[in-house]
Amino acid sequence: METCVCVCNGEDELTKQLDKVIDEYRGQPSGLIQVLTKAQNLVGYLPKWVQVRIAQGLGLSLQEVYGVCTFYAFFSLIPKGRHKVSVCAGTACYVKGSQMIVKTLREVLGVKPGQTTEDSRFTVELVRCIGACGLAPAVIMDGKDVHGRLTPELIPAVLGEYK
């Protein structure tokens, strides 16, 4: 369940910062993607209260804003963890056992791809290819650290580097 003080008191610092972003494009529906991107960078994701505020500021319907949020893969409607675990599901990684990596992550972290751990430490996602076919199966941590030739037994050690 989503809770946010900023909806209730309008004076919250996060709301003020969001309003500054919206003000740059106020009444300009063509600025929607720029506003959504800046809002996500500010808040971390795009909860309903943010979408409502953006819709009002740009003169759009909530449905239009939601449609853009859900169309583009780089927007998220759920909070993301401090660390992003991107599991390669490309052909080479799949053939070399990426499905076992996903299964182990699910067992160790208690979440499926697309979900975030309860402590907000890790978000697991499947990606199509990370360009590390020679290291298959592989994951990228936080979009930069490649861990290759993984086996289920190595997963706890990899995750331990990010705790």
Automatic annotation (TrEMBL):
Recite the UniProt cofactor note for this protein. Binds 1 [2Fe-2S] cluster.
SUPFAM superfamilies reported in the protein's UniProt record = Thioredoxin-like
Q: Which domain of life is it from?
A: Bacteria
Alphabetically sorted, this entry's keywords are: 2Fe-2S, Iron, Iron-sulfur, Metal-binding, Oxidoreductase
UniProt keyword annotation of Transport present = no
Recorded GO terms, molecular function?
2 iron, 2 sulfur cluster binding; hydrogen dehydrogenase (NADP+) activity; metal ion binding
Q: Which cofactor does it need?
A: [2Fe-2S] cluster
User: Record's Pfam families?
Assistant: 2Fe-2S_thioredx
- Tell me the residue numbers annotated for binding [2Fe-2S] cluster: 88, 93, 129, 133
EC numbers for this chain: 1.12.1.3
**EC category name:** oxidoreductase
Q: Which InterPro entries match?
A: NADP_DH_HndA-like (IPR028431), NuoE-like (IPR002023), NuoE_dom (IPR042128), NuoE_N (IPR041921), Thioredoxin-like_sf (IPR036249)
Q: Which family does the UniProt entry place this protein in?
A: Belongs to the complex I 24 kDa subunit family.
Q: Please state what the protein is called.
A: NADP-reducing hydrogenase subunit HndA
Q: Which organism is it from?
A: Methylomusa anaerophila
The gene it comes from is hndA_3
